[in-house]
């Protein structure tokens, strides 16, 4: 599939119609969905109608995403489509409004072709928690695509769409991006409006972008970023020209921080080798590699699973079978109806996290768990502030291993949580991060490197990722892809 | 810390979850393991640390979110009730509240 700038310019020049472009994307998505299960809904009619409007629009040559097919994780509201969050409890719901990010994509000429499968309420690292069956990894159908935004990652990896949106609460964009061999971008907390993103952990959630190149990810981030009066946590910080910045060279004296402690125990040997090689690639580009320490990073999973579950237990209290979605039958009283609805509507992982969150917030335990976790979160933020005095960006693996097999970790929640060891720190501290494909394992599975930057360093992340991708382009394609289906 | 099945039952009540016997057993074991894992935080001295509250950056903290208190259009009853499992005469109907 062509890059976003190539696609929009061929549409602007009239060499290709938005309709043909969107039609081929939908066709490939329909053909491959049986094997990948990446989409929960494909909106053929609506998307083609929207493409026709673009073709007729006099401003199509000025719209930055004119006629670009985009897939959206099913926890982001798109008017006229479903929003299930991968859960039975939503019914599915049909939101009467667009998320701000969706409003902005549509205004830029983007065409939403469908809603992608995900772990229930974005809780999971393997997609095995979707109520509608897991997404399969297009590189190997016996393996997980990662989670929770696995459908969006698989759709981009298989070449069904050039870009997709997901949400990243503890790594749910970057981790599946690494496991599927695509770019995954999580911006600074407050960069993209959360209005219309179904809440999981409100102090951690950010919408993120999947694409095959940094240029394409920058093109999407460009239009969806910025202050929104519907979300008081969006910051009043100007949005730079990400696309222009991406092309700029890294300045002389650019420093990349590496924490040796994070390359130790628990890291797969092949991932370690790929990361060491990436470090050498940066060194060859003239980048100075400096040792940094994040002394509290080893506590990040513990902090995360207190804060994220506490916030989730509050956010998910709204699913009570009254105003929308599923309601259990035959409950004699209101309280019975709540309990029956929630028990039948939520899957095991969601219940587990609601209960853990309820426990850590309950009387007598608040100080010991929740308050303690918020204090260690403050220490972790300080670790990042200290590290960024010594370097421009930090480089880590995105995940400890390449894609694992279905069923391998599903009965061991703690082992599953440890997949997020490299990604949760960015959500706890609010810093932006990007996962970039950096090679294949001996079994032919993608490996991702992660770059983390200070607040509002999106441009720097794009530049550093682009510099890497220019000398080390990731050209391998998964076994299941749009061309193989055609 | 070990979480007993009766603790799990109490938490489930607080969370409005009507869990089965099997779930109670499973969650007691799993949540005990997770709670034991997170208790490693006790090893960190946080006596002089101010807790981080929320996820805001300094720029986010400084962002002015006040707006004029003016009436703006809202969804309205018709749209708000469209997704309700049991709408009735412009209301959300629920099972009886008092037994």
What does this structure look like?
The complex is a heterodimer of chains A (486) and B (99). By secondary structure, chain A is an alpha/beta fold. Chain A is built from 17 helices and eleven strands. Chain A has a single domain (4-255, 390-485), classed as Amidase signature (AS) domain (Amidase signature (AS) enzymes, Alpha-Beta Complex). An eleven-stranded mixed sheet of chain A has the order 1-3-2-4-6-5-10-11-9-7-8, sandwiched between helices. In chain A, α2 (18-36) runs antiparallel to α3. The mean pLDDT of chain A is 96. The two termini of chain B are 38 Å apart. Chain B has a two-stranded antiparallel ribbon with strand order 1-2. At the A-B interface, α10, α11, α12, α13 and α14 of A face α1, α2 and α3 of B.
Name a few traits of the molecule.
heterodimer, A: alpha/beta, Amidase signature (AS) enzymes, 11-stranded mixed sheet, 17 helices, 11 strands, B: 99 residues, mainly alpha, 4 helices, 2 strands, 38% helix
